[in-house]
Amino acid sequence: MLFPSKLAFPFLCLSLLLALPLHAVEKPSFTTKEIYAAFAKKGPQAVIAHARKAANYIQKGGDLNVFNEAHNQTWWPNRPFFTPVIVMRCDELRDVTHPIASMRPGLTQRNALRKFRDLDGQPTFHILCKKLPGNPRGLWLFQHHYWPDTKEPLQLAVLIWPIQGTPYQLQLFYPTTKYSLEQLNAFLN
Fold first, then answer.
1. Domain ranges in the chain?
2. What pLDDT was estimated at residue 143?
3. What is the CA radius of gyration of the chain?
4. Which CATH superfamily is domain 29-186 in?
5. What does pTM read for this prediction?
6. Rounded Cα distance, 163 and 28, in Å
7. Chain-centre distance for alpha carbon 189
8. What DSSP element (H or E) covers 127?
9. Phi-psi region of 149 (alpha: psi -120 to 50; beta: other; left: phi over 0)
10. 46: alpha, beta or left, given left = phi > 0 and alpha = psi -120 to 50?
11. What angle do CA 55, 155, 39 make, to 5 degrees?
């Protein structure tokens, strides 16, 4: 008999867990260099294709709740090395969905995006929503912010994508220092 009793097994497991080095149970952390390199392999065209796919899904009556799932491989594939899809409403300046549960309650409140500021103090989503009516193919804007599982802020190109025939827009992200806004917006044409 390996264990003197079945009651001893949970205590042995707890002892083994406590004996693990702290880094073995910590959340992973990535450098900005790793995040930029991973996104560079995909390119902004992959983010735009991801937006088109999500818009098509929503236009066909797809369930918006799937965009709240942080580990959904369809809408946040290869996390954290690709962008999630977040559904928003510019007319209410709020997110409708958010894959990070701790952020969802605050960002889904009416006018939440009016208050949201990046690390430079810019109201990124408010600016994007104001500019969107003149840009029916979508629009990119830069913000400086943290990315999931990173300790350092990144330059994020934020894409806002209108979903025709609905009150919704999509927001997607592309961490990059490689492209200018002019170059990113040219990919939308």
1. 29-186
2. 96
3. 20
4. PAS domain (3.30.450.20)
5. 0.82
6. 34
7. 24
8. helix 124-131
9. left
10. alpha
11. 60
pLDDT digits (tens, 9 = 90+) for 76-117: 888 878 889 999 999 999 999 999 999 999 999 999 999 999
Sign of dihedral through CA atoms 49, 157, 139, 63?
positive
- Distance separating alpha carbons of residues 169 and 138, to the nearest angstrom: 9
Span 41-53, average pLDDT: 94
Altogether, the residues listed in the chain come to a count of 189
User: Distance between CA 11 and CA 172 in Å, rounded?
Assistant: 45
102: its two tokens: 């701790």
The string of DSSP codes covering 51-115 is HHHHHHHHHTT--GGGGG-TT-TTTSTTTTSS---EEEEGGGTEES--SSTTTHHHHTSTTHHHH
Contact 114, 95 (CB under 8 A): no
